[in-house]
Amino acid sequence: MAVSPGVFSWDDNSLLLQLKDGLGDDEIEVIYVGCLKEEVHLSEQDEVSQILLDSFKCVPTFLPADLFTRYYHGFCKQQLWPLFHYMLPLSPDLGGRFNRSLWQAYVSVNKIFADRIMEVINPEDDFVWVHDYHLMVLPTFLRKRFNKVKLGFFLHSPFPSSEIYKTLPIREELLRALLNSDLIGFHTFDYARHFLSCCSRMLGLSYESKRGYMGIEYCGRTVSIKILPVGIHMGQLQSVLRRSDTEAKVKELIKQFCDQDRIMLLGVDDMDIFKGISLKLLAMEQLLVQHPEWQGKIVLVQIANPARGKGKDVKEVQAETHAAVKRINEIFGKPGYDPIVLIDEPLKFYEKVAYYVVAECCLVTAVRDGMNLIPYEYIISRQGNDQLNKLLGQEPSTPKKSMLVISEFIGCSPSLSGAIRVNPWNIDAVADAMDLALEMAEPEKQLRHEKHYRYVSTHDVGYWSRSFFQDLERTCLDHSSRRCFPSGFGLSFRVVALDPNFKKLSMERIVSAYKRTTTRAILLDYDGTLMPQASIDKSPSSKSIGIINSLCRDKKNMVFLVSARSRKTVAEWFSQCEKLGLAAEHGYFLRLMRDAEWETCVPVADTTWKQIAQPVMQLYTETTDGSTIEDKETALVWCYEDADPDFGSCQAKELLDHLESVLANEPVTVKSGQNIVEVKPQGVSKGLVAKRLLSIMQENEIAADFVLCIGDDRSDDDMFEVIATSMTAPTITQNAEVFACTVGQKPSKAKYYLDDTAEIVRLMQGLASVSEQTLTE
C-alpha cells in the first residue's frame, strides 16, 4: 500500500472515534492502540506508525493476515461472539468443537497488543483502558509486565449466564484475566450479574456492594464492577444532521414516502443471526394480516448492514431475509407499493440518519445484542434542527415525536423506559406493539420522545467515558501504597496485594523464638486452620492429637483451641488432650483443661430469640437445597456449604437482612461467614478467649514472652486485635515475640500468613518437636 497521510482516516463506526471526543480533555493525553484493516509491509511499518502517531495519536499493532484471520474471524467471531450471545460452542452451526489453535492465535494477538502498549506508556502514571471481548486476556499480560498498572476493561457485548459460559473450555483463564483489571465495566446490570455469578460459581469468589459500588475480593485486591450504558457522540450526529447531503436525502425520502401518504417504519440491523430481522418481517406480515387497514399505508424499510463475521450462517440469514421479503411483498404488494423495502448494501452514515429523520417508528428486535445505539441515534435524529423541521413541514415550536419498539434483550432497553418493549420471539406481541406505536395519541408520542431525548442527550459518550475514567482513578488511588507480588503461571497469573507489613511467617524465626522463650501462650483456631475447610470428616486426626499433646505437655506452654463448634463436639474430639484449653461457640464456653468445669466468658444468655430466628432459618432451609441448620446451645447457624454456590450466596444475603430485621430488638448479633449465617449473643467473640487466656496468666503473675495466634477467617481477626493491643499491656513482656498468623494470602488483621493448613500443621509439628526434645533433655 502507498504510505501517505491521505491514506488514513478515522473509521466513522469505530468506538475509538466516539471516545476521541469523549476524553477530549486538554489535561489528558489519549493514545489509541489498535490494528489496521489492511496488512502493511514490514518495510513500511515504521513510517506508517510515525504518521499515525503524529496525525492521529494512534499506535498500530501489525498483525500478519493469517494470524488476524484466525484471531478475529476464527476465535472472536466463531467462539466468543456466539457464546456471549447464548449460542453454545458445540452447536453444529459452528462446525464442531473448541478449536485450540484459534485460542492460541487469540492469546498471541493479546500478547502483541501488550508489547505495543508497554512501548508507549509510563506504567507509574498512565491509565490503560481495554475494550471488548477481543482483548479479554490483555489485562493478564499487562499486569504481568507491571503489577501496579492502572487498568480498566469495558465489555461491549452481553455476558452470558453461568450455564452458558461454563461450557467454554478456557472459562477460568478468561475470568482470571479480567480480574487482573482494576475496574470492569458492563452496559447493564444483567451482564454484570452474570459475570459475578460466574466468578462465584467457578472461582469461589465473593462480591459485595459498598456505598453504591460493587466489588469482587480477589487476592487482596478489590476489583470494582461498574454498570454504565454507553452513549452516542452527540456532536458527530448533530453535525451530520446539518449536512447538505443529509437534507437532500431527507427531501428524497419525503417525496418517496410522505408525499405518497405512506408511514415509514424503520429497521437498521447487521445481517447476522442475532439481530432478529426475519422475526421482524414475520411481525410485519402478522400486522398486515390482523390489521388490513394498514395495507397500502405503512412501509417497513429494513436497512441491512454488512455482517461483521463470515460463514454459512450469515449466508443463510441473508437468503432467509430475501425470501421473506419477496413472499410478503408478493402477498400484500400492489403496483407502486411494496410493504417492505430491503436495503441490503452498505449505506453512508448520513443516509441512515436521513431515514431516521423521516421514520415514524424504529424497530429493533434483536434476539440478543450488546448495547445497540440505533435507538439513541433515531431519537436524536427525530429531534432534528430548524432546517429539517422546515422540510418536514413542522414549526420550530412544534413538539417532536418518536416511537420505539425494542427487544428486551438489547443493552439499551433498561435505559429507554418510554419504548414499547417486546419479546422478539413472540410474533403476535411484536405485531401488536407495532400497531400500538402507530395508533398512539400524538401527545403521548411527544411525551415519550421528550423523556428519551432528555436522557440520551445528557448521557452521551462524553458522560460515559468521563464517568468510567473517574471511577478508574478512584479505584487506583491506593496503588502506590500497595505491596504487590506475582503469583501463578501463564494465564493463571495474578497479583496479590497485601498490607505493606503483611508477610509470610518464617519457620526459622518462629522456631528460634520458641526455643528462646519460657512463657508461651498459643491460640489455635480449628476449622480451616488445623483442618482444611474442604474435608468431609472434620474430626481431628491422630497426628493432630499427637502434636497438640506434645505442645500441652511442655510446662512452658498454655495452649487453647478456639472453635465455633459446640462444646459437646469439641469435648468429644479432644477428649485425649488432658491439658488442652478449649473454647467453644466462638468463646462463649471455655474450660482450662479436660477435667475443669466449663465457664462462660459473658453472662448466661437468654435464648428465647431462637423461637423467632429458627422458623426464619427453616423457611430458607426448605427453599435452599443442600442447606442445613445447626442448633447450638447459644447460637443458631445456617450453613449452605453443600448448596448451589450462587443461589446459596443469594439466599444468605436475604436471610441476613431478614434476621437483622426480626431480631433488631434482641441481644444478639447476626453475622455472615464462610458459607454460613450465624446468630449469636452480643459481645461473644474469639477475642474474649485471648483476653481470658492472658488474664489467667496475669492472675498467676506470669507475663507471656511468646504469643502465637493462628486463624483463617474474619472471626479470628478479633483474636488478632486483642493480641496486637496487648503488646503494650502488662500481660505480655516488653520484648515478647508475638505472631498473629492467618491461613492464605488475604486481607487480615494478622501480620503473618502461611499458605495452607498443611503449612500450619508442619509449623505446629516443628514446635512440638522442640518441646519433645526439651522434655527428653
From TrEMBL:
GO cellular component terms listed in the entry, alphabetical order: cytosol
One annotated GO molecular function: trehalose-phosphatase activity
Entry EC no(s): 2.4.1.15
GO biological process annotation, one example: trehalose biosynthetic process
InterPro entries listed in its UniProt record: Glyco_trans_20, HAD-like_sf, HAD-SF_hydro_IIB, HAD_sf, Trehalose_PPase
Keywords: Glycosyltransferase, Phosphoprotein, Transferase
Catalytic activity: D-glucose 6-phosphate + UDP-alpha-D-glucose = alpha,alpha-trehalose 6-phosphate + UDP + H(+)
Short name of any one Pfam family annotated for the protein: Trehalose_PPase
NCBIfam families: HAD-SF-IIB, T6PP
Family affiliation: In the N-terminal section; belongs to the glycosyltransferase 20 family. In the C-terminal section; belongs to the trehalose phosphatase family.
Protein name: alpha,alpha-trehalose-phosphate synthase (UDP-forming)
Organism: Salix udensis
